[in-house]
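Inverse folding, one chain.
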């Protein structure tokens, strides 16, 4: 594909074309990086939101942080070495990596929003306004009855209602920090005013409001 593409460019544009290759980004287990619970990690914000993009890099394997810095950022080597030294705080390095890559791809403003959303969820600060949000119309509120299973599917935290039910039965869903144990549970409509926070596992988050 690479050689074919370069050849096509040469013939179409009538000038030399070159192709570059780099080593694959891999996890410590040797698997290709770039997969999330929802599928591939996209640069397109319509397919992978800036927050999800940020969180992917925030949760990268400890052993892969230095390699990600070297292959994906323009940060000086001495700064990378300082951030990833054995005596350094690896979680702080991950935050820098996540912010840097999100800013490179989506811009500083979106990187700050993603960072603030993560801090709101995990650090007790930040701003929940910037976390992934599902805005429901009046028709959607009525049709779903604000059932948690429906919200999980609409918000793409689960692939289907059966997936949502299994996740609830497995104890993997929180609504406003309270574990959901009933597969038929529904949210209080009054809670839409400030936003309903749904959590799936350790990495899936969604704010549900009235749109």
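Residues assigned per position:
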């Amino acid at each position: 594909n690479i050689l074919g593409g370069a050849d096509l460019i040469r013939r179409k544009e009538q000038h030399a074309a070159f192709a570059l290759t780099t080593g694959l980004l891999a996890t410590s287990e040797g698997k290709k990086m770039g997969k999330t619970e929802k599928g591939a990690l996209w640069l397109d914000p319509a397919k992978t939101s800036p927050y999800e993009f940020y969180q992917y890099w925030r949760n990268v394997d400890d052993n892969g942080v230095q390699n990600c810095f070297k292959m994906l950022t323009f940060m000086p080597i001495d700064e990378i070495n300082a951030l990833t030294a054995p005596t350094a705080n690896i979680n702080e390095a991950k935050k820098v990596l996540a912010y840097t890559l999100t800013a490179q791809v989506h811009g500083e403003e979106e990187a700050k929003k993603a960072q603030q959303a993560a801090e709101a969820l995990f650090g007790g600060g930040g701003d929940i306004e910037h976390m992934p949000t599902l805005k429901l119309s009046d028709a959607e509120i009525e049709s779903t009855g604000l059932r948690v299973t429906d919200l999980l599917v609409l918000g793409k935290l689960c692939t289907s209602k059966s997936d949502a039910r299994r996740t609830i039965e497995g104890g993997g869903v929180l609504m406003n920090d309270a574990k959901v144990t009933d597969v038929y549970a529904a949210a209080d409509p009054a809670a839409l005013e400030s936003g309903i926070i749904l959590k799936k596992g350790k990495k899936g988050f969604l704010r549900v409001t009235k749109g």
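Strands lie at 35-36, 39-40, 133-136, 173-175, 178-179, 196-200, 204-210. The chain has a mean pLDDT of 90.
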